[in-house]
Amino acid sequence: MVKIGRGLNRCEECQVPKELCYCQRLIHVENKTRVSIIMHRRERFLTSNTAVVANRVLKNCEIILRGMKDQSASKELIINDDSVPLVLFPSDDALAIGSKELTEYLAGRPAHLIVPDGSWGQAKRVAKREPALQNVQAVKLAAASPSLYRLRRQVAQGRLCTFEAIARALGDLEGEQIEKDLMVSLAAMDHAHAMARGVDKYDNGNPDPLTPRLFVGIRLGLNPSFIKDFQNERPEYDWVIDANYHLTLCFIGRVRRSQKEKLVEALTELEYSKFDLTFKSIDAFDSKEHPCVLWIKPEHSPELLELAARIRETLKNLGIPLDFKAYTPHWTIARTRGNIPIQGEIDAWFNRSFSLKSHIDRFILFEGHGTRPVYEESFSKTLT
Fold it and tell me: Nearest to residue 323, comparing CAs of 302, 308, 337?
């Protein structure tokens, strides 16, 4: 568990230790539907409040505080004539978002989504007591679904945190992609705060410890002799041992044991066909002139990219945050550890011509243990 407390080096934006900062994992969304969040004043400084993060990632969004001594939320809330105000609360007369009845009610006009935030009781009072909302049509989500948010326990089945409710609503109003992008951001927040707080028990109270670092990859069954030649030329580099040769499909990091169990269950259900992969060139991160990592590059493979995409989608659906960087298929062979070559000194490596073929018939969930030299296979899925 990462310790968090007064005086620790936290990110000023997300309020977790900087080593867990999730700011760069947030996906910013240009929503067409205006979103106004009416937040109880007691919620604004709580790190578990998801409305604050929703306001960060949604371009067309505002937060209006309720319960302030010299400020009225109803007076702060501006309802324009060019949109139709809708309060997101499942009252008896609420229309389901995405329903024919709501479509007819909107009559082609854009919606203005007003979202009460806070505890369930606070949200209920906002919807019922705020003068500005007395004549506003209530709307509700079309179907209940379990909450993925772990920092606050929901008091009843089907109730969601504010961020999830907004994501679901905008998904029904504007399309599935906006909901997916928002849920990636929520997963990043939930994961970081859970790690910081040590949310480390199953629902039955048993320990739910952190796993070692995890990643999904494929073994290549290749060990070209020219790598040995390179090692002899540059022994100061940190060369990957041949037992660890692999191509990463998705880096995960440390998660709770319960999350890993759900991941293994989901990956077991993933069906995919075998395919061949060809490697023909050597490349480098950051650049060939100033390399920090040397890697062997595969030829473009739609099958490889599709497999990686499906695994990453599986992780997203489980609420496990992913690396925000674009996926670049690569087989790492060495790290230079700051030993930058003289200009042109290893150009021959990058100009080398070869053709290495690997038959991919399974993918693996690996565990990386800092004290062990070889990655451990935690789970393996055979391709058909």
Answer: 308
Q: Is the pLDDT of residue 85 over 80?
A: yes
pLDDT in tens, 337-357: 888 888 888 999 999 999 999
**Last residue within a domain, chosen from 143, 162, 197:** 197
Report pLDDT for 4: 42
Give the HSE-up count for residue 200: Cα atoms under 13 Å, Cβ half-sphere.
11
Query: Are residues 271 and 263 in contact, defined by beta-carbon separation less than 8 angstroms?
Result: no
100 burial (CB, 10 Å; 0-12 / 13-18 / 19+) is: exposed
Beta bridge partners of 210: 256
Mark whether 119 and 218 lie in a shared domain.
Answer: no
Task: Identify how many contiguous H helices and E strands the chain contains and give both numbers.
Answer: 10, 15
A 10 A CB-CB count for 191 gives 24
Q: Is residue 222 domain-shared with residue 180, that is, in the same domain?
A: no
CATH classification of the domain holding 56: 3.40.1280
Beta bridge partners of 366: 215, 377
Dihedral sign of CA atoms 39, 43, 44, 50 in order? negative
Assigned domain for 231 exists: yes
From CA 352, how far away is CA 355, in angstroms rounded? 10
At 156 the pLDDT is: 54
**Spatial separation of the C-alpha atoms in residues 289 and 297, rounded to whole Å:** 17
Whether residues 252 and 357 fall in one domain: yes
pLDDT in tens, 128-153: 788 888 889 999 998 766 677 766 65
Can you name the residues that pair with 336 across neighbouring β-strands? none
Residues 61 and 86: beta-carbon distance below 8 Å: no
Query: Do 118 and 259 fall within a single domain?
Result: no
Q: How many CB atoms lie within 10 A of CB 225?
A: 6
- Domain for residue 12, yes or no? no
CB-CB contact of 276 with 288 (8 Å): no
Report how far residue 155's alpha carbon sits from residue 265's, in angstroms, rounded to the nearest whole number: 27
Q: Which of 109-123, 233-247, 301-315 has the lowest mean pLDDT?
A: 109-123
Cβ contact 61:54 at 8 Å? yes
191 and 234, same domain (yes or no): no
25: containing domain: 18-197
